[in-house]
Amino acid sequence: MNPRKEATYRMLSLIAAVIFVLPCVFLVFPTFDINPDDLWQMDSLMEFICAYKNTAILAIVGVLIQIVIALPAGYAIARIPSPKAQTFFLLTCVFFLLLPQQALMLPQYLVLMNIGWLDSLKGLLIMTAFQPWMILLFWFAAKRIDSSLFDSAICDGASNWVLFRKIYAPIVRPYVMIAAFLSIAESWNLLEQPMTFLQSKEKYPLSMILMQLSTDNAELKNVLCLLFAIPLMILFGTMVKKIIDT
User: What pTM value is reported for the model?
Assistant: First the structure.
């Protein structure tokens, strides 16, 4: 590449990075002006801690459920011998992916109300268990695996479980880590579903507590938002390192 063009690209990349990071800088700087006593004496501190726990439960348990469902589903669709059947299942996933979440709120609310899971974290988890984008991601990962690996293992007498556990799961591990991070980030910022399905304040996730937090202390708001974002920042850095090392 021409040195002048390369320098231009680097400059533009640097400017874009600064523009992206600038809001985060404005979020962090005011936190240095806060008195630590204001944070620990906050009336809603226990609510904040409880909401942090609820958010962690939704994120960790939710991603485990989603991967347990999506990982074998993507593998099963990729291994369907009939192209028409495979296309049908893929289009079904695409349809649910494009379906507005708001259109599903009322049916989901009625289902949870009828089974008695309306004001509970388990109801929220079950309604976010099916993630079409995750199934499509794992299907794509499975299709990128050379079919000769499966054929050789089948000739050696390997069962479908062995194919899944010994070939498919290890190869798609980077995709699983990417899907896990995206799922956790989505659950961490979940807002519409908790607003619809939860009524008890002690079951609110952190996103709802921050939304309803009424305080005139701007520095305190910045601290709480920073505490809200730090776990995702750490997780992102960890995931990127593991994916690069894989």
Answer: 0.79
